[in-house]
Amino acid sequence: MTGKLIKLIFFRLPTVVKLLASVLIIMTIFGTMIHFAEPGRFPTIFDGIWWAFITAATVGYGDYVPLTTIGRLIAIALILTGGGVIAFYISSIAAATVQYEQNLMKGKIDFKGKGHYIFIGWNERTRQLIRLMAEKFPDTPIVVIDRTEKKILYEDYPVHFIHGDASDEHILLKANIKEAAKVLITANTSKAEKHADSFTILSILTIRGTNKDIPIVAEILSKTYVENALRAGASTIIRSNDFLSTLLFHELSHQVASTPFEDILEILKRKQFSHMPVTKELEHRSFLEASNLLMLQGYLLLGIIRENQYKIHPPADYILQKGDILLAFVSWQRKEI
């Protein structure tokens, strides 16, 4: 029974480990044989094992050399068997290294770090954000989850890629969602708005099921899905369509003296419009107090939504209540307090 268990454990080991074990066993056998065949030339078994490794690896220092016929026959057998095993072991290590790099590039390797940001969705917005993060927060690891991209080269983007569906708990665990710092979900603009937002909400629900406390920033395309995303557990909602509509309106109606198109684009690169629920910290505070607190975090509070009614820039003493939704500009370069 013990023998079968040992065999079972051995065959379940990685190929490289099994090859290393085979090399050690073969070198030990030949080292022991040469020691007993020529004890004068090889005083200890370790001397024999040393000679076996040097001979099989074709290094040939020449410090130990068999002189008898039996000793030379052992050397010939070692060269024909042990040399091939060592060569196969070295080539297997090289092949395993190449395979690991291929799997890493194709998003098949689990992420083992912690305190990282998870970006869901691979698009131009994500790529620009990765460049900003690399400039401002180079020490923050980034994990990208995407089901459409086939591979992402680390040389091009310093991220750990996980290929798969972010609404699948198994994929989130591969990204180590339980020890992540934040999650960003970008909308798939190649899909219909309804389908893109539905996937975003499903991803939020799955994330909340694995990590109930992690902040989730989600991009929603359709206004009708904002509250669903908040109920699903999103911490902050970004509505990029609001900016696009405002930008188009500005370009249709602006005068010559108005802010140039390029300046508006520069502003939009730094700011995003967000919806987020009132936190316990902000409940029962005045609009002015909430504005000051949020400003320290990089938010510019514009107004609130209460019972589906928009209240833009309410009075300073307007009291926030549980269930209110805050409307604010948010900068990606904000600092946490």
From TrEMBL:
Keywords: Ion channel, Ion transport, Membrane, Transmembrane, Transmembrane helix, Transport
Keyword Transmembrane helix belongs to the record: yes
PROSITE patterns associated with the record: RCK_N
A GO biological-process term: monoatomic ion transmembrane transport
Gene Ontology cellular component annotations, sorted alphabetically: plasma membrane
Cross-referenced Pfam families: Ion_trans_2, TrkA_N
Location relative to the cell: Cell membrane
PANTHER family given in the database record: POTASSIUM CHANNEL PROTEIN 2-RELATED-RELATED (PTHR43833), POTASSIUM CHANNEL PROTEIN YUGO-RELATED (PTHR43833:SF9)
Name by which UniProt lists this protein: Potassium channel protein
Native source species: Compostibacillus humi
Taxonomic path: Bacteria, Bacillati, Bacillota, Bacilli, Bacillales
The encoding gene: kch
